[in-house]
Amino acid sequence: MNEALFRVAEVIGTVAFAVSGGYAAVRAGMDWLGVGVLAVVVAVGGGTLRDVLLGIHPIWWVREPDLLIVACVTSVVVLVVATVHPQSKLDTRRTVLYADAIGLAAFTVTGTSIALAHDVQPWIAVMFGVITGAGGGVIRDVLVRRKPLVLVGEIYALASIAGGVVYTVLRETELPSGFAAATAVALVLLIRVAAIRRHWRLPRFEEPEG
Amino acid sequence: MNEALFRVAEVIGTVAFAVSGGYAAVRAGMDWLGVGVLAVVVAVGGGTLRDVLLGIHPIWWVREPDLLIVACVTSVVVLVVATVHPQSKLDTRRTVLYADAIGLAAFTVTGTSIALAHDVQPWIAVMFGVITGAGGGVIRDVLVRRKPLVLVGEIYALASIAGGVVYTVLRETELPSGFAAATAVALVLLIRVAAIRRHWRLPRFEEPEG
Amino acid sequence: MNEALFRVAEVIGTVAFAVSGGYAAVRAGMDWLGVGVLAVVVAVGGGTLRDVLLGIHPIWWVREPDLLIVACVTSVVVLVVATVHPQSKLDTRRTVLYADAIGLAAFTVTGTSIALAHDVQPWIAVMFGVITGAGGGVIRDVLVRRKPLVLVGEIYALASIAGGVVYTVLRETELPSGFAAATAVALVLLIRVAAIRRHWRLPRFEEPEG
């Protein structure tokens, strides 16, 4: 996959993640700062978990703060939009869901690839892809006291797993690594977009009374 | 304590922890993947916290993924059982509670021992024993938005503290370290099993209205 | 700022943080151990997050456990007071709120300063000041399943940001670093005390029905 194109995917994903975090804070009745914090935490949380668990220091947004800056700028935009149009629910718009899917795809590949580079066993590298792609969303839901969405029926972490597996397998072949990345990104996108459009869901258990 | 026997205790504990995590997800109405994630997180969470706080890298389940595999397999079993018998509440069965006690005992000793090996002061090593033994359960309860059970009356963390103290004290003596481990494991088991059978509880504060 | 004076501020802050954590556990109907755990987690949580994210090992309370001891002792006091006088709400008393403000001020400066010493960009160092000062409170609220207070209207994290910015800017000048610390501490205190007395709040978004 073209390096520059991949970078674009990461930026789009960061914007979408920050929008989802910022709106989660708006819905939870947080204040302006809460919106900023949630936006940033969702955008950088997955990669932070990955780096902490792999023992990579300095952590990625300390080393290269570009995407952190993207997240901060996005949070300001969310703040302005949510203040001017309290009813705008940007984060549920199709556009943003698709942008989020691009982010999930890009971060899954980044996470898997970084873990493989740290001599982690292939199937554990796939787990790191999921942690990187979906971790921010889990932290978001814990902070706004919502049940982690990625675990209650959305085909989300599953798309990430599929992408991680394909990426890891293709990396073992003679094919160029750009091809592995491109295929994995395309697969995650395909699954996630199909899941959004066709309302695919994983079977979930019925919650008792409480 | 016999090395092999200790290993068996860790495996039994991992299975029990994974069952408790998996069922917490089932009860919280999560999906199949959520069951897998919770099972794994509870099983490996305490040791992960310990390694991250002590700065040990690669983290234990990256270094030696055996118990991670045990947790994954267990989560599949939970999934099947919970799907076939939705009313089976394996995690509240005596057998599983006792297996969980074995895990608490084994991981308390592992955690205390690893902390001591990292030149941590003895009483702080005891804290690491508790983090290792009870940390997974706290993460579980945060993810399913339940009040951390180990902090609301169960004699759970307390059993772990007692075991950690005894282990640390005995390690200071001339006695073989296997003896220290065996005594500590026995003590945690004894306290925990007695607490389960006799419904021992720590006094808790009454919650106001909300 | 005088080194000894700064140390006193840290101790006062630790006591206040532990009181806030302990009472949060009391209110949430936790048991005695829960009170101890919450008190300690709030007192050391922010600095722990900072050290883990910066990759500093051994973590601060493993290296120098003095403040950890202060937190433990405080938790015992909270336990006794809350048992004898269940209606005493120490943590909402003005005295404790002011002590908490002193802690926020001191830990903000500590966090910013440690981050700067690790060659972190200035604006990211400010973030580490906030993480150090306000992080413990966020962990507290997650554990007692409360919406993070620092994100729902209180001028809290904002006071920390202001202090971090002033500290970072003054450190760039020729002025002695003690002066930078003293000014930043004074500013955080001033803003926080004014916010408490005058009920200053950040605008927050209205929460929908749920």
UniProtKB/TrEMBL annotation, chains A, B, C:
<keyword id="KW-1003">Cell membrane</keyword>
<dbReference type="InterPro" id="IPR005115">
    <property type="entry name" value="Gly_transporter"/>
</dbReference>
<keyword id="KW-0472">Membrane</keyword>
<keyword id="KW-0812">Transmembrane</keyword>
<feature type="transmembrane region" description="Helical">
    <location>
        <begin position="67"/>
        <end position="84"/>
    </location>
</feature>
<feature type="transmembrane region" description="Helical">
    <location>
        <begin position="33"/>
        <end position="61"/>
    </location>
</feature>
<feature type="domain" description="Glycine transporter">
    <location>
        <begin position="8"/>
        <end position="81"/>
    </location>
</feature>
<feature type="transmembrane region" description="Helical">
    <location>
        <begin position="96"/>
        <end position="117"/>
    </location>
</feature>
<dbReference type="Pfam" id="PF03458">
    <property type="entry name" value="Gly_transporter"/>
</dbReference>
<feature type="domain" description="Glycine transporter">
    <location>
        <begin position="98"/>
        <end position="171"/>
    </location>
</feature>
<feature type="transmembrane region" description="Helical">
    <location>
        <begin position="176"/>
        <end position="195"/>
    </location>
</feature>
<protein>
    <submittedName>
        <fullName>Trimeric intracellular cation channel family protein</fullName>
    </submittedName>
</protein>
<keyword id="KW-1133">Transmembrane helix</keyword>
<comment type="similarity">
    <text>Belongs to the UPF0126 family.</text>
</comment>
<feature type="transmembrane region" description="Helical">
    <location>
        <begin position="123"/>
        <end position="143"/>
    </location>
</feature>
<feature type="transmembrane region" description="Helical">
    <location>
        <begin position="150"/>
        <end position="170"/>
    </location>
</feature>
<feature type="transmembrane region" description="Helical">
    <location>
        <begin position="6"/>
        <end position="26"/>
    </location>
</feature>
